[in-house]
Each structure stands twice: as structure tokens, then as C-alpha cells.
Amino acid sequence: MQITCNGETKNIDPGTTLVALIKNLNLNPDTVVVECDARIVKREEYDAHVLTEGNIIELVRFVGGG
After folding, report:
1. What is the helix (H) or strand (E) element at residue 24, kind and residue range?
2. Taking the complete model, does pTM exceed 0.85, yes or no?
3. How far is it, in rounded angstroms, from Cα 2 to Cα 22?
4. Hey, how many other C-beta atoms are within 10 angstroms of the C-beta on 64?
């Protein structure tokens, strides 16, 4: 099935959770904020949030520095 992640179309397996998507992108779920279809998803929901066809996902990482 297809979703859009940060503006790019991605093919994922049915039943993929947010945490699986984040890890598949080699990101740490603890350092990512997720917006799914214009709604912020709470970090504690990442494991249970199953993606569906056509979801629009935005992943935001905060990077420190100066």
C-alpha cells in the first residue's frame, strides 16, 4: 500500500505501525515527532498506530547544536 512520508510516496506493507516505519527509516522513535493526516500522534501511540492506505505522514526531528 502507499503512503506519503515527508512529501515522498512510499510503499509499505499492510499492518505497518508508525514505530516500524520510523525504525525502517533508521530514525530513533524517541527523537521524532509524527503528524499523521494533520494530527500530532502521541509518542506512546506509535506502537499501536497502524498506517492505512493514503496516510500523509510528516516526520520532524529536532537537532541540537549551535
Report:
1. helix 18-24
2. yes
3. 15
4. 4
Counts for the chain of helices (H) and strands (E), in that order: 1, 5
* Residue % of the chain over a pLDDT of 90: 91
Domains of the chain and CATH, by start: 2-61 (3.10.20.30)
Using a 10 angstrom Cβ sphere, with 0-12 exposed, 13-18 middle and 19 or more buried, the burial of residue 59 is: middle
Between CA 14 and CA 65 the distance in angstroms is 38
User: What span, in angstroms and rounded, lies between the C-alpha atoms of 10 and 1?
Assistant: 8
For 16-33, give one letter per residue: b (16+ CB within 10 A) or e.
bbbbbbbeeeeeeeeebe
Extract the residue ranges of the chain whose pLDDT is less than 50.
none
